[in-house]
Amino acid sequence: MQAEFTIETRGQGLYEFTSDIRDWLSASGADGLLTLFVRHTSCSLLIQENADPEVQTDLQAFFSRLVPPSDHPSMSYLKHTYEGPDDMPAHIKAAMMPVSLSVPVLSGRPALGTWQGIYLFEHRTAPHVRRVAAHFG
Amino acid sequence: MQAEFTIETRGQGLYEFTSDIRDWLSASGADGLLTLFVRHTSCSLLIQENADPEVQTDLQAFFSRLVPPSDHPSMSYLKHTYEGPDDMPAHIKAAMMPVSLSVPVLSGRPALGTWQGIYLFEHRTAPHVRRVAAHFG
Amino acid sequence: MQAEFTIETRGQGLYEFTSDIRDWLSASGADGLLTLFVRHTSCSLLIQENADPEVQTDLQAFFSRLVPPSDHPSMSYLKHTYEGPDDMPAHIKAAMMPVSLSVPVLSGRPALGTWQGIYLFEHRTAPHVRRVAAHFG
Fold it and tell me: What Pfam families does its record include (chains A, B, C) (predicted)?
């Protein structure tokens, strides 16, 4: 079965949608494989710790330093800048972090570890509506 | 169904093969899941923007700076250098970017977003013949 | 079919378990898709070169420099540090490298290239028992 999930973002950061996925899978109760695919090139999918919110802010802080905005002196070689200083860094982060994720499912339950949550990682500063295609089979 | 795609590269950079994948999938017309897997450890698979070619050159420029050739002073700690200064950096980039990608498919059409293309990202400087294993089911 | 593999780690580094996967798949002899998923947020799955062990030590050296321990002056902005200086860097590396991998399988044989091995990349310094969920179908 297939579905599309919509996540509304309000700037850079991690947005959890684990419960949406759990609800969708539990209806089937079957064994199989869950695959998520984000239909954009300026955000990512992450499976990360869902216990301490500081993990999420630290992740954002690290990647903002590793890939600074294109108006930062160290990034002056970038050419694709016309959508703003957060445009090309978003594409770079989208290359470094997953566009697709696959998780085995047993009896309608994804094999996530105790501390694992599913997140959309938004790399743009403006609000966006993000679509995630889901496949279970 | 399974297939193998061959991509001939001529140095570092992104090589798009979206249309090969679309053609292969459209013949079936079915729903399912597409998975691509690159059978090498010195190149990557990427889904990235296919509108502005400067995104591709900027991606290459960023990763060349993040992971300089092994004859660069900052990389003097690297030991696996006998295939040349682009050898170990290629393995590092292959660890940071996907070796496999999965995309849901509806009626033979992959759920790619409007601006998403499928690329092989070559990390070596010499020409190579790259093989990508494809699974649809 | 599904299974769970257990990998005992003894500090940071790459731990190969390709033969465990090959053995599990060969029993079926079937065509299909293998998917591996690591049920933790402080280690990664990698497909990398299995010929020269220096590739593995170089990979570890690179990522240790790219993401230094949180008691390093350059990382003073990190907040999630109570499990030790290797804690948050482990989460960051787990965001940069795969949590899931998919490999097409023909007649019970994964389509790995000649030099490709399957590794768990441990990012924590203390020993851990790591669980990898496997799906074949």
Answer: YjbQ
DSSP state, residue C107: T
Query: Is there a contact between B42 and C113 (Cβ–Cβ < 8 Å)?
Result: no
Identify the helix (H) or strand (E) that includes residue B23: helix B18-26
Global model pTM greater than 0.90: yes
Interface test with C, best of B70, B76, B81, B88 (most C CBs within 10 A): B88
**CATH topology assigned to domain A2-136:** Jelly Rolls (2.60.120)
Contact call for residues A116 and C39 (beta carbons, < 8 A): yes
Sheet holding A109-110, edge to edge: A2-9, A128-136, A32-38, A100-106, A109-110
The residues near C116 (Cβ < 8 Å, ≥ 6 apart) are B39, B40, B41, C47, C48, C49, C50
In angstroms, what separates the C-alpha of A46 from chain C's closest C-alpha?
A: 7
Encode pLDDT of C71-89 as tens digits: 999 999 999 998 999 999 9
Q: Which of C93, C112, C122, C100 is nearest to C19 (CA)?
A: C112
Q: ipTM for the complex?
A: 0.97
Q: Tell me the chain B residues in contact with residue C32 when contact means C-beta distances shorter than 8 Å.
A: 135, 137
